[in-house]
Amino acid sequence: MTSSSPDLSHHLSGEARERLPNPMKVIWRRVNSSGRIDVANMANGDPHHSLYPFKQLMFEVPSVAEEPDPVPAWRTGNCPTQFFHSYKDEPCALSLRNAFQYTHGAGLPECQKTLTDLTQFFYAPPDHAITLTLGNSDGITKLFRLLGERGDHFLTDEFSFPGMTNAPLSYGIKWVGVKMDAGGMIPEEMEKILQNWNEASGRRPHVLYIIPVGQNPTGTTLSLERRQKIYAIAQKWDLIIIEDDPYYFIQFDQPPVETPSDDQGNYSKRFAKSLIPTILSMDTDGRVLRIDSFSKIIAPGMRLGWITSNRMFHDKLVTYTDSGPQHPHAFGQAFVTEMLSEKGWQMDGFCRWLQSLRLDYQRRRDFLLEVFRREVEPTGYASVNVPEGGMFVWIEVYFERHPRYRSEPPVAGSSTVAPRTNVEVLLLELLEKFIELDVVIMPSVLFAIEEHPRWIDDGARHVPIRDRTRFYRATFAGTEETIEKGMTRLGRALREFFDGPPLTSRL
Ligand SMILES: Cc1ncc(COP(=O)(O)O)c(C=O)c1O
Asked: Is 178 within 8 Å of 226 (Cβ atoms)?
């Protein structure tokens, strides 16, 4: 965002415009920023730190500097350890005195600074601010309310993550799915929707929700070229982009991050270079709201993440948080601030962990693909994609080879989005077979964005999404044992489902 950036305030929802700042926090902030040092603070119900029933927090963590590939060593109990310490009465990166007090809606200043530096290091957005969240679910649902008005349509991938897309339905927001291929969202398809939009359907979509790396559920990753095209379309059609990127650091098939002996201390820079540029990093207008989370790279129960946005949206988010849920809990903020501090892993150590973690997930992906090729592919009834990041594969099943598959030609005058095959019926029947054989994977129908004939422009050539729900989402985040069992049972289930007589023995 620069001084010539467009005014994007027209994207705010009525609710966001009408929210008032918390008046007590306004006074508190004024005094805090005035530089006064001897203020008798009798304004708030702040419990005194001497009454907190703890003195220190101590996290025992892998010593990443001592192990070239710390994740496998950690898993098997063979990794040396170190401690992140937070104290109430001794110096540390985030004193527990401050950490456990009421604070700013954007988060504790020390943690906010740490995450601002991290964001700057990896994405270098022109002029953005950080608002801490309880993870991406919290961040995204806040953003839907910040931007969405009853009757609005938002854009997303035609198969998207219902954990998030369900959220704004109840306050009257509808989704429009953009066609995808093996490379994720197709920018030209998105532009077609915007170009052909009929205002009789409501205002043209002004928000795009997208998962650029290891998309949930398809596992696809957007190329740099597609990212650039999508950003250019967003500029042309005045879209806000919500970039939900929890798998950003889990990108596969990158050359190893070497540490030449004459170039110590630059590991993190080399690691950062191996990552595909985020859409945020291209954001000269301030129209990208990026959502990051520690869920996939530290632990989901951390419940900590952050939104990077232009300052106008940041202020609105803070206003909401100050009179609503308040800042995220102190435990996670203390962990993260110490982790990236001088006494913690620092950025180099954090990147060593991330590099080792992504290799671990890559090995799990490769193991799944190997077992799939052995147990499932020979059935001739399914194939799988090779994701470049994240935690999911997208398994395609050839339902047209099933004896009960039905397909009817389009009938003139009938809806362009009505199914013309029984793929969905077979998909759910096969799910029952999977469950009967003790394997669970997610049917694509759960992720499919409902279509409407109004935004389908290629009429008779269009294949309704309900005829394209021939996929299941499977994760390789589990153990080799789970993957081995799961894929073997999947192969058996497919044989029984397509070929007939049930098998008696089970793995
Ligand atoms: C695409 C996507 N967004 C958001 C989330 C939720 O993340 P968090 O745990 O940070 O709320 C997930 C979790 O699976 C996800 O896959």
From this structure: no
